[in-house]
TrEMBL record:
This is Bifunctional ligase/repressor BirA. It catalyses: biotin + L-lysyl-[protein] + ATP = N(6)-biotinyl-L-lysyl-[protein] + AMP + diphosphate + H(+). The lineage of its organism: Bacteria, Bacillati, Bacillota, Bacilli, Bacillales. One of its GO terms (molecular function) is biotin--[biotin carboxyl-carrier protein] ligase activity. It comes from the Bacteria. Residues 25-44 bind DNA. SUPFAM superfamilies: C-terminal domain of transcriptional repressors (SSF50037), Class II aaRS and biotin synthetases (SSF55681), Winged helix' DNA-binding domain (SSF46785).
Length: 327
C-alpha cells in the first residue's frame, strides 16, 4: 500500500516507493491537504538533508539519489514491515550512544528502540577502552531490549548480537565474519565489530539490556588511527566494495529481532550452536590473558552463561568469565 503523504517524512517514503518515476506535485498537495508550495518546501528540506529530488516539468518530483546516512527513513526502507524496531533516534554527532540509550530506556522507551549516530566523539568499548567512531564511515548504535528474563541470562544477548551481525554482514556484503570470544567480530583476522552489552536490572528481573554495536563499514585503511592500523579492518576493505550502511544496519536489526525471538521461544541452545559454528576461538589453542594470570589451552566451547571453556594441557577444564584472548 502507498504511504499517505502528511509531512516531509511521508513525502520521502512516497517518492521512494515511486521507484524513480515522477509523482505529481498537485496530487501530493491534494493528498496531504496542503498547497503545492508546502510540498515544494518539504522537497527543499529533503534536498538540504542530502536527497537529490528532480522536478520534471508537467510530471512531478523524482527522487534521484539518497544520502549515505543512517536516518530512520533510510533504515526503515530496508526493514520494510519487520516488526522488531519500534523507534529509531538518529544523531549527527554524540559523545556515545550508550548513555543516551540508558536514559531513553529509563524514560520508558520500548524494546526495539535504536539510538544511532553518524559520529561518536567519545565512543567507548569493553573495559572502558576508547572506540574509534569516525563520522559517516561506520554503524555506531545502541539497541534497547526489554526481555522478561532474570539478570543472569542477560549476557546471552551479546552472543545473540554476535550471531546476528555475522549473518547481516554475510547477507549484505557477502563476506564471512568470525566471532572472537567474548564479543569481537573478525574478518581476515582483524577486528570489524565490537559489542558492548550493559544492563539495567532489579535483583531478579531485567529492566533493559542495552546492546552497543560498533561496525567498521566503509573505512579505507588510512581512515583508521595509527594504533589500530594493524588490528582493525572494515567490511569495505574486506569485501572490496562500498557498503550501503543503512542496508547493513537494517539487516543487523532484523536479525537481532529474529534471533531474540528464537531465543525467547526455544532457549539458548540454537544460539549456542550458531555461535560455536561462527566462532574463531573454538578449537584453537589460545592464551586467555586475565588481570592476575594467563590460562593456556584449547578453547572447547561456551557454557549457557557464555563462559569460555578451555582445556588446559593437564586435561583440566577452566571456565573463563572475562579475558583478552590471544592466539
Ligand atoms: C568493544 O569491542 O570493546 C565494544 C565496542 C562497542 C562500540 C559501540 S559503538 C556504539 C556504542 N556506543 C559506544 O560508545 N560504544 C558502543
Amino acid at each position: 500500500m502507498e504511504s499517505k503523504v502528511k509531512d516531509k517524512d511521508s513525502l520521502l517514503r512516497r517518492l521512494m516507493e515511486a521507484g524513480g518515476e515522477p509523482v505529481s506535485g498537485q496530487m501530493l498537495a491534494d493528498e496531504a491537504g496542503v498547497s503545492r508550495t508546502a510540498i515544494w518546501k518539504w522537497v527543499r528540506e529533503l534536498e538540504e538533508e542530502g536527497y537529490t529530488v528532480r522536478s520534471v516539468r508537467k510530471k512531478g518530483y523524482v527522487l534521484e539519489a539518497m544520502p549515505d546516512l543512517l536516518t530512520p527513513a533510510l533504515i526503515r526502507r530496508h526493514l520494510k514491515d519487520d516488526p522488531f524496531v519500534s523507534d529509531i533516534i538518529h544523531y549527527e554527532s554524540v559523545g556515545s550512544t550508550m548513555p543516551i540509550a540508558h536514559r531513553e530506556a529509563q524514560n520508558g522507551a520500548s524494546g526495539g528502540t535504536v539510538i544511532v549516530a553518524e559520529e561518536q566523539t567519545e565512543g567507548r568499548g569493553r573495559l572502558a577502552r576508547p572506540w574509534s567512531s569516525t563520522a559517516g564511515k561506520g554503524i555506531w548504535m545502541s539497541v534497547i531490549l526489554k526481555p522478561d528474563i532474570p539478570p543472569h541470562r542477560a549476557p546471552q544477548f551479546t552472543l545473540i548480537a554476535a550471531v546476528s551481525i555475522c549473518r547481516a554482514i554475510r547477507e549484505t556484503a557477502g563476506v564471512e565474519a568470525r566471532i572472537k570470544w567474548p564479543n569481537d567480530l573478525l574478518i581476515g583476522g582483524r577486528k570489524v565489530t565490537g559489542i558492548l552489552t550493559e544492563l539495567q536490572a532489579d535483583p531478579d528481573r531485567v529492566q533493559a539490556i542495552i546492546i552497543g554495536i560498533g561496525i567498521n563499514v566503509n573505512q579505507e585503511t588510512e581512515d583508521f588511527p595509527e594504533e589500530l592500523a594493524d588490528i582493525a579492518t572494515s567490511v569495505r576493505i574486506q569485501s572490496g566494495h562500498r557498503i550501503d550502511r543503512a542496508a547493513l544496519a537494517a539487516a543487523v536489526l532484523r536479525n537481532i529481532g529474529f534471533y531474540s525471538k528464537i531465543y525467547l521461544e526455544e532457549g539458548f541452545a540454537p544460539i549456542k550452536m550458531l555461535w560455536e559454528e561462527n566462532s574463531d576461538t573454538i578449537g584453537r589453542k589460545v592464551n586467555a590473558v586475565m588481570m592476575r594470570e594467563t590460562v593456556t589451552g584449547t578453547a572447547i566451547g561456551i557454557t549457557e552463561e557464555g563462559v569460555l571453556e578451555i582445556r588446559t594441557e593437564d586435561g583440566a577444564i577452566r571456565g573463563i568469565y572475562s579475558a583478552d584472548i590471544e592466539p
